[in-house]
């Protein structure tokens, strides 16, 4: 089955179970300052869970565009390192707004995954987790679905006892609840341990589907208010389930990514499509193109700065592979080939996306080469393994290297960066600007312009600490 057929099968299955097929919403959450991007299928239904909004249906199903590259849900640093994390992915979901609860949610998921008429996955390849004290879910898996006890794992809140978390929350506030997750075992040839174990982060046991039993609304002061009615929110990554169905061990080996990887390899004169840099580029073209298609433009703050940082990362990976000309924007065509049908806006906005990417690539190209030289020079001159804060600041301030970009280049070479030193240099610059502003208004204006690359964080958006 192709990815597009899996997406359709999912929607068909839930439509048969009386779910309304609803379109994906924008990557920009509608009128909701508590999350930076749409991070899950439930985001567009938040008010339905809270009982603030009534719709003509109580069951819905979607294939939702998601971005996890900023705020509470941020997988940017995982991309290229795990087989399963992307900045952009599609989340297949089914939702109950006070309609069915645990029993049906579990039954639907199990039927879709394992029955012959649908995905037909052998049950012995699957494992499930439940929230540590959720005996009801445990019994449903064990008694009703026939999952053996040694394949059901209890997991609580992340901490000393558990390596991962079985309580899902949209953000610091909002709907949340205990969950049960379904894992697929990619086999002993892949490194990694079962859910909850210290080796969980490997790629052997991959979480494919999360079923959340939405029961609470977490308020700003941390109080857990019960929702008007217990509800269900589920999410399954299309790319992860496609890897299972297509019998490959990495999301990057599925049909959709192969097309993008081949296109990127061709543009950059590469033959090995398993290289991490190419994977990062193939990942990043999706988030960048969809963000622009949904109205985000590269800028120095908020979502626009996340977009800028991702484009610059892609440009840097291209540079690393010897790319001298802007190449990234040329990948939009390949993306439209594989996703334009499911997302007509993407095809419609192709030209606009290409132009925005090219502009950003050209702008960064002016300082990229020079920045890399500065970095190399600093590495040559230093004695330890930490890039001095002043260099990191210079790269940021003069060469347009966002902090996380420099950290990425450093990590690539087994080095770290002096973040505290960077903060000091940044504060000194702020002080200088402030002092100057006391004496000369015009000078202030100039300083402000010079500092156009400064990003002061998005605290106001999602309560994260300042990100520069
Ligand atoms: P993981 O533990 O692997 O990071 P998660 O528990 O953070 O996943 P959820 O928030 O439960 O993920 O999201 C629901 C589903 O969406 C996951 O089960 C997975 O299939 C998919 N998913 C989550 N994050 C990503 C990502 N960054 N890239 C691709 N798919 C993802
Ligand atoms: Mg995660
Ligand atoms: Mg998880
Ligand atoms: Mg999960």
UniProtKB/TrEMBL annotation:
A single GO BP: alanyl-tRNA aminoacylation
Cofactor: Zn(2+)
Cofactor binding, note field: Binds 1 zinc ion per subunit.
Domain (Alanyl-transfer RNA synthetases family profile): residue spans on this chain: 1-468
Keywords: Aminoacyl-tRNA synthetase, ATP-binding, Coiled coil, Cytoplasm, Ligase, Metal-binding, Nucleotide-binding, Protein biosynthesis, RNA-binding, tRNA-binding, Zinc
Signal peptide (residue range): none
Compartment(s): Cytoplasm
Reactions that this protein is recorded to catalyse: tRNA(Ala) + L-alanine + ATP = L-alanyl-tRNA(Ala) + AMP + diphosphate
Domain note: Consists of three domains; the N-terminal catalytic domain, the editing domain and the C-terminal C-Ala domain. The editing domain removes incorrectly charged amino acids, while the C-Ala domain, along with tRNA(Ala), serves as a bridge to cooperatively bring together the editing and aminoacylation centers thus stimulating deacylation of misacylated tRNAs.
Protein name in UniProt: Alanine--tRNA ligase
Record organism: Litoribrevibacter albus
Gene coding for it: alaS
Parent-protein start and end of this portion: 1 to 468 of 874
């Amino acid at each position: 089955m192709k990815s597009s057929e899996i997406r359709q099968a999912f929607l068909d299955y839930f439509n048969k179970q009386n779910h309304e097929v609803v379109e994906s919403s924008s990557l920009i959450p509608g009128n909701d300052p508590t999350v930076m991007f749409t991070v899950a299928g439930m985001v567009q239904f938040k008010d339905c869970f809270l009982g603030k909004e009534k719709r003509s249906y109580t069951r819905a199903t979607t294939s939702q565009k998601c971005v996890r590259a900023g705020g509470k849900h941020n997988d940017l640093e995982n991309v290229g390192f795990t087989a399963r994390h992307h900045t952009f992915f599609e989340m297949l979901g089914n939702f109950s707004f006070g309609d069915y609860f645990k029993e049906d949610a579990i039954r639907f998921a199990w039927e879709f995954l394992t029955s012959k008429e649908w995905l037909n996955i052998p049950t012995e390849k699957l494992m499930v987790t439940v929230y540590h004290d959720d005996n009801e879910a445990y019994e449903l898996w064990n008694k009703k679905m026939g999952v053996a006890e040694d394949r059901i794992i209890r997991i609580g809140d992340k901490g000393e006892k558990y390596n991962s978390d079985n309580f899902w929350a949209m953000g610091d506030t909002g709907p949340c609840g205990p969950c049960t997750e379904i894992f697929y075992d990619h086999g002993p040839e892949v490194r990694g341990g079962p859910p909850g174990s210290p080796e969980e982060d490997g790629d052997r046991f991959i979480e494919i589907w999360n079923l959340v039993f939405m029961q609470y609304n977490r308020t700003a002061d941390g109080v857990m208010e019960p929702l008007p009615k217990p509800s269900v929110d589920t999410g399954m990554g299309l790319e992860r389930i496609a890897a299972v169905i297509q019998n490959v061990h990495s999301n990057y080996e599925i049909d959709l990514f192969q097309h993008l990887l081949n296109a990127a390899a061709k543009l950059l004169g590469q033959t090995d499509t398993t290289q991490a840099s190419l994977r990062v580029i193939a990942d990043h073209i999706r988030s960048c193109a969809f963000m622009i298609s949904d109205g985000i433009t590269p800028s120095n703050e908020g979502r626009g700065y996340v977009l800028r940082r991702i484009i610059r990362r892609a440009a840097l990976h291209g540079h690393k592979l010897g790319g001298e000309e802007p190449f990234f924007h040329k990948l939009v065509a390949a993306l439209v080939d594989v996703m334009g049908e499911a997302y007509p806006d993407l095809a419609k906005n192709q030209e606009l996306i290409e132009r925005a990417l090219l502009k950003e690539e050209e702008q960064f190209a002016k300082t990229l080469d020079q920045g890399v030289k500065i970095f190399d020079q600093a590495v040559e001159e230093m004695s330890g393994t930490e890039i001095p804060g002043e260099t990191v600041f210079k790269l940021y301030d003069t060469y347009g290297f966002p902090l996380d970009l420099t950290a990425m280049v450093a990590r690539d070479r087994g080095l770290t960066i002096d973040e505290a030193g960077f903060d000091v240099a940044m504060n000194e610059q702020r002080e200088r600007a402030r002092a100057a502003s006391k004496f000369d208004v015009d000078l202030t204006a100039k300083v402000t312009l010079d500092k156009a690359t400064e990003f002061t964080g998005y605290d106001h958006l999602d309560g994260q600490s300042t990100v520069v």
